[in-house]
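Troubleshooting entry. The earlier prediction with adenosine-5'-diphosphate gave an output that would not parse, so I re-checked the input for stray whitespace and re-submitted. Clean input:
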Amino acid sequence: MSLAVNIENLSVYYGQTPALTNVSLEVEQGEYLGLLGPNGGGKSTLLRTILGLVPVSSGTVRVFGDKPSKSRAHVGYVPQLNSIDRRFPITVFEVVLTGRMKKGISPFFRYSREDREIAEALLEKVGLRELKARRISELSGGQFQKMLIARALAVKPSLLLLDEPTASVDAASRDQIYSLIEELSRTMTIILVTHDLLAVSSKVHRL
Ligand code: ADP
């Protein structure tokens, strides 16, 4: 069985700025891995490299044995909250549905009934069913993160990457989000980026 993630001697530069130098990481399928580190330490860059969103300067990245561009369909991603424009006029349900959008199809793409059912079920799972029709600008930080998790799950991922999913989140939502991730970790590989050490150290399987 191939590793979920296999990174060897990876370096990534933004122009002249090194974001990652000579990083190696192996993640087994089924692992729940926490990545801790200071701001600017390259954690987000590492996740974006696993997604194939950032050009690799040197080294290799394999995800389920393939290049990231090939394995992309199996990877769910919860980006950092502050990387998103929350004023965009779209509803919670529509955001989750975008997780069902497939690449390389016609501009007249329509969601299937199954897509809608999956999105509905995921909203239920993350506890946002009642907020389905709400504009995303009206969500709290915790509700917004749960919505992003539902969207990431809509791709039916084998690997889920979460970038600071408890930043800007109230304590109750934070506990709910960690419970949800814990539950998800039984059925998929998880990499969780955080600097919330106390909150996760008792939860993740490896740090
Ligand atoms: P972390 O997630 O651990 O805070 P990042 O991966 O965001 O770290 O950043 C690693 C380094 O790369 C930092 O020095 C940051 O300033 C730089 N960096 C991140 N994104 C960009 C970008 N889009 N353009 C230029 N530099 C970047």
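This one parsed fine. The pocket of adenosine-5'-diphosphate is lined by residues 14, 17, 19, 37, 39-45 (CB under 6 Å).
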